[in-house]
Specification:
Chain lengths: 140, 146
């Protein structure tokens, strides 16, 4: 059974599962770093997504795993060079000022209370940054 | 050279309008002012904010003039109304910016350049990334109307 994570964003909770088989190194480092807290902001280059920077996870030597360029809605993507964790709610792609089409690791997928959580992510575009906490969802 | 005044969150900036580069667009933009509308941070184009203009002669402009994709800090550009997006869109860059849509880079018309020290303007533009959308007011200055 895949390890699960819980996300709390500005009073909205949801959860998802890590892609441990497809992204073993990325998932293991991410799991070890939990809980992660910060402010989720809307991306400036990548489209319909919010992001936080986890500086403790930034490492350019970490390979891209479960590679994705266009993020599927409900996916959580990780860019090792930035330590960026992106939550996609619509059309989005791994981009920045240098790369109009980069790649990221598809780290996790949301599967519980997805719609409400993604609405909260989308609202950062109008309302600005919101507090987020990502933690382990331990098996009961 | 015509000019306009832009006000965001109590910060006012003056832009010289480039009627040498974009005569038809600048004329239509000035004729469409004043405008008060929502200013949002870009989600595809980098360190820039955008606002839609939904009425006025600017909606009759469909062609680009002196098209560019890179948007230098302090530059005001305009994306004409089109079949997909029926409103005109202005963008103001405060850092690294390039006009992009979900599928590709796009061309826009350069229409203005900020005059004087832009640091206060850049600060309020950048703030929309963390604090969310705000309101922008655009008005033609008198010499632009004459």
């Amino acid at each position: 059974m895949s390890r699960r994570i819980k996300i709390q964003l500005d009073g909205v909770s949801g959860s998802g599962y890590l892609h441990e088989e497809a992204a073993p190194t990325t998932a293991a480092r991410f799991w070890a770093a939990l809980p992660i807290e910060g402010t989720l902001r809307h991306v400036r280059w990548s489209g319909d997504a919010g992001y936080i920077l986890a500086s403790e996870l930034a490492d350019e030597s970490i390979p891209i795993e479960h590679a994705v360029s266009f993020y599927p809605p409900g996916s959580i993507a990780f860019r090792p060079e930035h330590g960026e964790i992106a939550f996609c709610y619509g059309q989005a792609q791994a981009r920045d000022h240098m790369q109009p089409a980069g790649r990221a690791s598809h780290l996790a997928t949301l599967d519980r209370n997805v719609e409400a959580l993604l609405e909260a992510v989308a609202s950062t575009r109008r309302q600005g940054g919101k507090p987020i906490r990502i933690e382990r969802e331990e098996a009961k | 050279m015509p000019s306009l005044e832009l006000e965001v969150d109590g910060v006012t900036a003056r832009f010289a309008l480039r009627d040498d580069l974009a005569p038809q667009t600048v004329r239509a933009l000035v004729a469409s002012l004043p405008v008060e509308t929502t200013l949002r941070h870009c989600r595809w184009s980098g360190d820039a904010c955008f606002a839609e203009i939904a009425r006025g002669p600017i909606l009759e402009i469909s062609a680009l003039e002196s098209g560019v994709t890179s948007i230098y800090p302090g530059t005001l550009v305009l994306r004409p109304a089109n079949a997909i997006a029926p409103t005109a869109e202005i963008l103001i860059a405060y850092g690294d910016a390039e006009y992009r849509w979900p599928t590709s880079r796009m061309y826009v018309t350069p229409v203005g350049e900020v005059q004087g020290d832009p640091s206060a303007l850049f600060k309020v533009l950048a703030k929309t990334s963390s604090a969310g959308q705000t309101t922008v007011r655009l008005a033609a200055l008198k010499e632009a109307v004459a």
